[in-house]
TrEMBL record:
<keyword id="KW-0472">Membrane</keyword>
<dbReference type="GO" id="GO:0030288">
    <property type="term" value="C:outer membrane-bounded periplasmic space"/>
</dbReference>
<dbReference type="Pfam" id="PF01520">
    <property type="entry name" value="Amidase_3"/>
</dbReference>
<dbReference type="GO" id="GO:0008745">
    <property type="term" value="F:N-acetylmuramoyl-L-alanine amidase activity"/>
</dbReference>
<keyword id="KW-0812">Transmembrane</keyword>
<dbReference type="GO" id="GO:0009253">
    <property type="term" value="P:peptidoglycan catabolic process"/>
</dbReference>
<feature type="transmembrane region" description="Helical">
    <location>
        <begin position="7"/>
        <end position="25"/>
    </location>
</feature>
<keyword id="KW-1133">Transmembrane helix</keyword>
<feature type="domain" description="MurNAc-LAA">
    <location>
        <begin position="100"/>
        <end position="211"/>
    </location>
</feature>
<keyword id="KW-0378">Hydrolase</keyword>
<protein>
    <submittedName>
        <fullName>N-acetylmuramoyl-L-alanine amidase</fullName>
    </submittedName>
</protein>
<dbReference type="InterPro" id="IPR050695">
    <property type="entry name" value="N-acetylmuramoyl_amidase_3"/>
</dbReference>
<dbReference type="InterPro" id="IPR002508">
    <property type="entry name" value="MurNAc-LAA_cat"/>
</dbReference>
Amino acid sequence: MRKKSSFIYIGLILMGVMGLLNIEVKNPNQVYAQKPTMKKLIVIDPGHGGRDVGAIVDEALEKHINLQIAHKVKYKLSQQGYDVVMTREQDEEVSLEQRVKLSNESNAQLFVSIHQNAIEDNVTHGIETWFESGKSASKQFAQFIQEQTSLATGAKNRGIKDYTSLYVTRNTHAPSVLVECGFITSDYERSLLSSDRYQEEIAEGIVEGINLYFQSEPI
Ligand SMILES: [Zn+2]
């Protein structure tokens, strides 16, 4: 007698569970809401590293500034729920081929290379964002990055520039940009670029540009 009633009891529970499942499947909104949200993967590429120091003026080494800004971008993106892969985490040499391979093999949604500009004089300053000519998604992404980094820092907006021979922006499958955060050759800008506060502002601008790019993307 006791066994039989417990069978009936289990049967009722099973029917109840199945009923719940049924309701969920029939309600498309509920099913959609329960779908796990896909994390977005961003590759951050601090330019140069190791023996390749990039531009150098006095004690300011481009490779160090690139890495410091990249770490700040990584931290902020992770805080907002993005997955982040860095092409280098420390002061080491990484070839351009390795950087592109890492981005393409990880199926990154966006690729951001971080550099500092250099020129013959010591007064030219401001931010530029470079992208591969003919890649429309990269151009759109470059516009967001350029606007937001200029806004966040108050730096001179030197606009977006299209190129046809930049290895990383040409060969990455993901929409990609190369941000020239400022001129290491400018006496005025070099001290800003070396400061923690200014680097934070650049990082904020890059993260905001990434957010706006995804918000504008047609679903
Ligand atoms: Zn560089």
